Amino acid sequence: MNVALHPTRDTLHVISLCTGGGGLDLGLGLAIPGARAICMVEREAFAVAHLVSAMEEGLMAPCPVWSDARTFDGRPWRGLVDGLIGGIPCQPHSLAGRKRGSLDERDLWSPTRRIIAQARPWFVLIENVAGMLSPGADEIAGAERVWRDLRRLGFTVEGGLFTAAEVGAPHERERLFILGVADRDDAGLEGHGRPVERAGECASGPRGGELDHAALDGTADEGAGGSLGLFPPGPRDLDAWREVLARTPHLEPAVRGLADGLAATRIDWLRLLGNGVVPLQAAYAIRTLAARMADGGSASAARLVRLTEPP
Length: 311
Prior knowledge:
By secondary structure, the protein is an alpha/beta fold. It has helices at 23-31, 45-56, 109-119, 142-152, 199-202, 213-216, 238-247, 252-255, 263-275, 279-295, 299-308; strands at residues 13-17, 36-41, 65-66, 83-86, 123-129, 156-162, 175-181. The longest helix is centred in the C-terminal third of the chain and has 17 residues, at 279-295.
């Protein structure tokens, strides 16, 4: 396979697994301008259609989309990718489910580990629900499996729980982010880092890489006549919603749900958004974890930090 791509010092090329609506990809792009997926792996037809539409509209860089992580071969991408990112399925780890972990047929960590070993990226970002921190029916926490296997593959690992509320969203959406980086001198060694336990420990340590999300969309001044802001009001903030509709009446069909005739795809959209990642939350997690690891002496993490900085 010749994809005619050659990574440069200031460009990060990644494989995106379980891409969904592309939230993790957009978050990586916010944290590190110029980072882009050169291959996506996604099996949900509605999500793939959404990704292709975004590519056609110029909202995402065009790239091939593979339909099944279990059959994806990472070897042709060796030497072409810097990283691998993935929001692997949460159902095996969610507290709302049966928590069968690796015993669940939907668990995709083993194929992900295989692809990492084949493609040999120098950084990996995995996102999942907080339930991944507690053991399931297989008697091991999903985060422990990820942490252990990344260390065996030669990665230094750091992780933490982050919420959408931390970046200004009106909801929590707590998610676990695990970042692994491979300093070439460390490749093949074990013993780097240890898994996070709960939110208090995840939040400890340096919190570098803060994002100025007001500057991202020009909402530093949200007074009368200003922008609507980056996030919508909370579900019970009726006065704020009335203000939104008064200032932008064209949004009313979308806000009120089915008035625009989207009943046929409403369930698909809710599924896509429910499984998705808030891009700004992901960007904050990437910058924070990279800064924490760079402070610990990782040269590869320091490179990630440098790439987050403006030229």
